[in-house]
Amino acid sequence: MRELTGGQTKVEVPGDTVREVVDALDVRFPGLHDRLIEDDRLRSGLAVFIDGANSRRRLRAKVEPESELYFIESLGGGLTPTLEFKKA
Amino acid sequence: MAVETRTGRTVKHHDNTYNVIGTTPIRHDGVEKVTGEALYGSDINLPGQFHGKVLRSPHAHARILSIDTSRAEALDGVHAVITGQDIPEPADKIISGGEGDGNLLKYKTENILARAKTHYHGHPVAAVAAISPHIAGQAVKLIDVTYEVLPAVLEVREAMAPDAPIIIEDLLTELDDQVISETPSNIAEKMVYETGDVDQGFEESDLIVDREFSFGVVHQGYIETHNATAHWLKDGNIHVWCSSQGAFSIRSELANILDHPITKIHVTPMEIGGGFGGKTTSYLEPLAALLSRKSGRPVKMNMDRDEVLKATGPTPGGYVRVKLGVTNAGIVKAGYAELAFDAGGFPGSVVGAGCKCVFAPYNMPNAKVVGYDVVVNKPKTHAYRAPGATHAEFASETVVDEICRELGLDPVEFRLQNSAKEGDWQLDEPPYARIGHIECVEAARDSDHWQTPLEQVPGKLRGRGIASGFWFNVGLTSSAIARLNSDGSVTLLEGSTDIGGTRTSVAMQFAETLGISVDDVFPIVADTDSVGQTDVTGGSRVTFATGIAAHDAANDMKQQIIAGLADLWEMSEDAITHRDGTFLTDGKSLTVREAALLLTDEEIFPVGRATVTPERVGGAFTTHIADVEVDGETGKVEILRYTAVQDAGVAIYPPYVEGQIQGGVVQGIGWALNEDYVYDDKGLLRNSSLLDYRMPTALDVPNIETIIVEVPNPGHPYGVRGVGEVPIVPPPAAVANAIHDATGLRLRDLPMSPARVQAALTSQNGDQT
Known about the structure:
By secondary structure, chain A is an alpha+beta fold. Chain A has helices spanning 18-28, 32-36; strands spanning 10-13, 37-38, 41-42, 46-50, 53-54, 68-73, 83-87.
């Protein structure tokens, strides 16, 4: 995903849910939405960690103002370079 | 009643005290198992059952030109023959084996039964059901298959070459879900993980060590071979009894492979004689089901050892390169690694996990790891205890030892100085929560083993090595249902196959929470119709995740008991409290047993239940010390003494934790010194028996000394961490580092067999020194 963010691995964007955060990311880095979401669900093999917790609610999960989110591949797969960002 | 079987000791980093946790009750399944009354998959016999056998490919890589089953079908006593054409055409979708590793359904299906090609020696080509195993065995020999034999490729670097024989003609390399190859390739996936500035980190380094490592294929070596019995009923319901690490996963796989409603598939897990990750997927189950449908009878199938070794899922062979940069003071500045794992005949190795583990024990500010998932003509590889981590950390922990030697640093102090700790960045994972690597290294440093100098004997080559290891552990989903019986006992249904004594470790957490004796909890491993969704017994997750389910089910039951008592006593639920197994209110106090009598007499039957998917799992660290003696003439390596220190969070049943540690170490020693798939130049496996595939026996290893470190896991109500997998990670590196200490040789290829060690000892140019 780094090619979509110009090499950045940590960015700050607004949003009250993971879905809103992804939408905000896509505005800033076009193409990220489709890299993370397929058929309105987090892509198979991806997980989203919010403040260290592997969120079961995924796109529906609430995000606090200082939350740190990590989109990572689920254990055992293996494709996705790291993208870390912080909610603004 | 309790048993005392501890051999090691515990170093606690908490002040928690418990009534049940940490004790050693007699295991609930103990009597059945020691008397032979426990039922395993092969013990199932249904009225009128047939027996199934598989025809397997005699070639490593071949196109199937034709299959003629007529002679087999004509054999008296044969009732069904199936080929790849009998499996529904697979949809192009991903299914999960339960440990997070997705596999394309079409590859999964073709691995069950070949369609157009055979991808490895032993690949199933057809299957037969007959009135006896012997007739089925005769029948498979009457199936006429015409093959076009194709060139085979078995080693990852050869398979990655542009001119390598292509195994899957339409396979293109993907990176981050994007196709990056223009022509078909054996490289199914490339993956890149990066943090910090690696180039800058190496520029800031005073010493850079860059080394290459290779690995053979290693099997899990479970004693019980695969088996499955299936009955496809006339109404479309399918009943399956099998030896699996996950009944729900088998149900899900069958629904996908057979394109059959999941509600019509009923899987009963039997007792299991080992799995270690190798029984988290199906091999015989779909075949038995299809043969049952075709024959109209239940069909029972058993693999023999030759089939298990040839055609189930061992751990990958492969290649790892590790480059580490440090300052003269021993501060790690940068790490780079390349990992290429053989996936076997179809994509989907554990290389991704290996990539994430390779530098995990260290705070690594700048790191880049590149992984390759490579298809070769060997059986489709699968999980094996901390999948991918042993390969990766053998390489990195050997390089760390070399750096310490080069700079004259104490390997213990190096690890303490650079250790990962809470808050440190993990490669492509969120920062670590509370972890116990430093505590493990400290306990190793303070151990009798480390503090006692290795006795040197004139004429003997003796040495000591140390290595750490990390494994993530996983959470996934677990369920528990608890029924309060009228006598105060509890029947506890859980869906987790019990491999390492988890019935009892889960029941202990239930008992601790409800405040009763674990002897009053009767745990049952239930079938897929009797308990909620429960993922595989794998990822060191059962005592952790199913333990949380039991804890939550106990709290649910507790609340229902309080509600029942409040109703009977006509008071608010808030007026009743629970403490140490007693329900209290003004002037009244009842034990759980007394409450059960009272409630059930009033036809109130509490049923506690919980389904959990833990969000904070908590990884496991371990540090091992090995003493070896190398025979200068034969190259044989003897383990003189071995100590394993491991953070268990909180040990629910300490002897079980020790058993897991000792078992993992012994498997790791086998991996280090002996175990390897031997293929000939045609790609045919030549050591598919346990005589020739040499696993360690009790005569090959000393008592494995254990030290349990308890740094409670914040993601579990009692602080549990999974313990089953990580102990297999350090042995190859610890042994390799000890061999170097003894001989001055740096061995970087597994196994470090007598032949390899002897060759290195007699090497004239000493490239590996």
